Amino acid sequence: MKKFSVPLLLPLFTISVILIIWQCISYFEVFPDYAFPTLNLVLLSFAEELSSLRLVNDTIASLWRVIIGFLLSATVAIPLGLYFGHRKALRQAFIPTLNFFRFLSPLAWIPFAILWFHIGDKPAVFLIFLATFFPLCLSVISSVATIPDIYFRVAKEYHYKGSELLLKITLPAILPQLISALRICYGISWIVIVAAEMVGCQDGLGYGIWDARNALRLDTAVCYMITIGILGMTIDRVFLQFTKAKNIKWGYGK
Amino acid sequence: MGNNNWVSHISIENVSFGYHNQKVIENLNLKVNKGEIVVIIGPSGCGKTSLLNLLNGYLLPQSGAVQMNGLIRTVHQHGSLFPWLTVNENIGIGLRHLKSQRTQQKAIQDMLELINMEGFEDHYPHQLSGGMKQRVELGRVLAGDADIILMDEPFSSLDYQARLKMRRELIGLLAKRPKTVIMVTHDIEEAVQIADRILVLTKRPSMVCAELDVNVAHPRHISDPDLIKIADNVLHELGL
């Protein structure tokens, strides 16, 4: 018989404890039914949402917005961070501004997003872009600025220049930090998409939660919340696989 | 690749250098013949690393002239292997000038054999011991077509036994791939075991206070009376 490993059993144990606590709260009616749905109700809601394909469609809509917003942000933030990271004057000129915008909650931009892009995918994509661009760009700048000088000295001796220097020295040198930054920013994207879809969309997981709230169907809202959590964790596992690559592992210790 | 017609030598004439208003090196003169191994020794903070940086062009002298006839490669004090590249790829950096992949692979294989790292070609630096990393560093500079090798306390991070071993290996490698070498160290024992000539520097501002020829055949044992005598002379020049 195949043995279960401890790393697999421990999270299962934690989840079981949470489910037991959930059942106990429902059983002893700590909160009324409408304010704290039972596990059974949530499972029924899952079946209902899946059979109507609403959950699937909303998941696809949210994933699409997150992927587009996140890719756009990474496409602009990473090259800009690499460029700024190499230039002290540019760093000094732009870091205070980038920091200023980093501290502005993306939710503060919601009115602008709706006025500029109306409703649909665009405002959500715009908000994800704003939420992830500044931390990602700053992280890349700081990673490049802290690359040990010795690598550039060696690169100079062996005549690495221009794009070759960027792609073969700078980028691999920051890859471990870059993957960590992408993981964090991806997490931010999921937080923001829910808020963005609550006000600027007609579908998506965030809209689903908002719609369920309006119908006082917290069982459906919980089913959407669980979906967001599972999706987030699954995609984070994909990022985690990158950190296990042999030419990146050095950045995470032995 | 080894080049039998190499003509490198180093010439430093009246070189002075300083940071802000503090003079680090003053009127330093030095000539290094091709194939010579010169070891520079001096008190801590006397400007040994600054001198190497003047030689490899990272720093510019405030006055005087530095002439380096040949391609320079540096072995750094703290490891400079790229951690995202394998041993194979790190050595391959020294062979970037070779156009053919096959020639490059052959040269890497030869170097792996020379530095005793066969079987470790696919390892990453973090999977190697300190001594192995230094061997790969040496492999990288020796594999290329460098004429002059600058070494900044290359074995200082190794334990005593590894240092003894690496000194022997360095001499062996240089016998097979002769290069002009300038090494900076604070280890007198290392200096007398490796050098053809030892230069003793004064405190800041640095000047050459003594030049000692080491005419002892390799392999040199640290208990050799001639080496002990030279080491005593170095200590005397350092005022110790």
How are the SSEs placed, and which strands pair?
The complex is a heterodimer of chains A (254) and B (240).
Chain A: H1 6-27, H2 39-51, H3 54-86, H4 88-102, H5 110-117, H6 121-145, H7 149-157, H8 162-200, H9 205-214, H10 218-243, H11 246-249
Helix pairs in contact in A: 2-10, 3-6, 3-8, 3-9, 4-6, 5-6, 6-8, 8-9, 8-10, 9-10
Chain B: E1 10-19, E2 22-32, E3 37-41, H1 48-55, E4 63-68, E5 72-75, H2 87-93, H3 101-114, H4 130-143, E6 148-152, H5 160-176, E7 180-185, H6 188-194, E8 197-201, E9 208-213, H7 225-237
Parallel strand pairs in B: 3-7, 3-8, 5-6, 6-7
Antiparallel strand pairs in B: 1-2, 1-4, 8-9
Polypeptide structure, described:
The complex is a heterodimer of chains A (254) and B (240). Chain A has 254 residues and is mainly α. Chain A has a single domain, classed as MetI-like fold. Chain A has eleven helices and no strands. In chain A, helix 3 crosses helix 9. Chain A is globular. Chain B has 240 residues and is an alpha/beta fold. Chain B has two domains: 166 residues, P-loop containing nucleotide triphosphate hydrolases (Rossmann fold, 3-Layer(aba) Sandwich); 62 residues. In chain B, the strands form two sheets. Chain B has a six-stranded mixed sheet with strand order 5-6-7-3-8-9, sandwiched between helices. In chain B, helix 2 packs parallel to helix 4, helix 4 packs parallel to helix 5 and helix 6 crosses helix 7. The longest helix of chain B is centred in the C-terminal third of the chain and has 17 residues. The N and C termini of chain B lie far apart (42 Å). The relative contact order of chain B is 0.20. The chains are: A mainly alpha (254), B alpha/beta (240). At the A-B interface, helix 7, helix 8 and helix 11 of A face strand 5 of B. Chain A: It is a multi-pass membrane protein. Chain A: Belongs to the binding-protein-dependent transport system permease family. Chain A: Pfam families: BPD_transp_1 (PF00528). Chain A: It comes from Pedobacter petrophilus. Chain A: Keywords: Cell membrane, Membrane, Transmembrane, Transmembrane helix, Transport.
